[in-house]
Amino acid sequence: MRRSRRRSRFPLLRRIRHLERLRAPRRYLAYLACRAALSGLSLLPRPIGRGAGRACGLLFYVLSARHRRIALDNLRLAFGDGLPRRERARLARASFAHAGMIMADAAYFVRSARQPIERVAVYEGKEHLLQAAAGHRGVLVFSGHFGHWELVALLQARIGVPFSMVVRPLENGRLDAYLGRLRRVTGNELISKYHAARGVLKALHAGRAVALLIDQNVRGDGGLFVDFFGVPASTTPALATFALKSGAPIVPVFSSLLADGRILIRYGPPVHVSRRGVLSDDIRAVTQACTHILEEEIRRRPECWLWMHNRWRTRPATAPVHRAAERDGAAAEAGSFS
Predict the structure, then answer these.
(1) How far is CA 186 from CA 96, 110, 112, 150, 161, in A?
(2) Strands, DSSP E only, in the chain?
(3) What is the pLDDT, as a whole number, of residue 271?
(4) Does residue 52 lie in a domain region?
(5) For residue 104, which of 12, 154, 161, 317 sits 20 to 30 Å off, Cα-Cα?
(6) Which mean pLDDT values do the consecutive 10-residue runs of the chain (338 residues) have?
(7) CB within 8 A of 176, min separation 6: which ones?
């Protein structure tokens, strides 16, 4: 009796949670809570606000068994049994804390946009971006959910190459609009991933930089399986497709937090892109090359990547299903700056 009662309770809770009449109040409360939290953090010194974000990330690590399990499984899949269990747990905790810091730092975006750039960031390889932009074909800038990807996007307009960011809109319209205003304070443009092609090509034609994140799982038939940590990973072909069809150069960018609180933003040399034969083969080759660059960066600082995302959820038809994906998985998709 106890067992059957326990089983029947969870579907009921899920049905209540998804009742249409409760959805709107829930979303409004989430919007108010997020806005109040960021407004409260903005009153604190930035180091304290970032520390609070890290603490929230660690709390989420403790409370969310599902995301904790995904992170630990991903770390084992990527690094194998050669990485001890204790080290996997340490990296997972550090990753959650890092993600919490990124979210909390949104409270300081307006302040960061107004401060002298040298007080916020240190740049390396900026010439790669500026030279690519000088070709007047636009620039495709790629990264992953790594380092401080949001602040990289926020600050790029201040060095003379404004961003158009491909993002996945939130279902919560009020929250999406509020966070969108924060992202646009330096003149950036947001392009919905659901209608991205026309917006991306228009931005490139105008000489803007278009930002794409290529590190998330693509569900369905829209992804390309390329090697990522030695495991096939369903990856967005959008970056390579736009580059090959528009002639826009591809420039990687990554960041890390410095001891003094600033971030180091590093632009790498452009990725070589050329038509060599069948378009689909060229798209796969470019996608693999960019994914390899991202993997190298993650290997250098694994604690700075979003391991809680179920990167290997979608599997090739002949491949075994990843354990975390089989149980539940994460509901994010690829190609967006969210």
Answers:
(1) 28, 9, 10, 12, 11
(2) 121-124, 139-143, 163-167, 189-192, 209-213, 224-228, 231-235, 250-257, 263-267
(3) 97
(4) no
(5) 161
(6) 47 55 82 94 96 97 97 97 95 98 96 94 97 94 96 92 90 93 92 90 94 94 95 97 96 96 97 91 97 98 97 83 41 46
(7) 169, 170
Please provide the distance, in angstroms rounded to a whole number, between the alpha carbons at the two ends of the chain: 44
Distance CA 107, CA 312 (A): 32
Task: Give this prediction's pTM.
Answer: 0.87
CA–CA dist 253, 126 (Å, integer): 10
Q: Is residue 15 helix, strand or coil?
A: helix
In a domain, 334, yes or no: no
Per the structure, how many domains does the chain have? 1
C-alpha closest to that of 237 among 255, 261, 220: 220
Q: Flag whether 22 is in a domain.
A: no
Tokens representing residue 28 in the block? 């409004």
pLDDT at 277: 86
Residues 172-187, buried b or exposed e (16+ Cβ, 10 A)? beebbebbeebbbebe
Helix (H, G, I), strand (E, B) or coil at 11: helix
Residue among 148, 162, 157 at smallest CA distance from 263: 148
**CATH number of the domain within which 214 lies:** 3.40.1130
- In a domain, residue 94? The reply is no
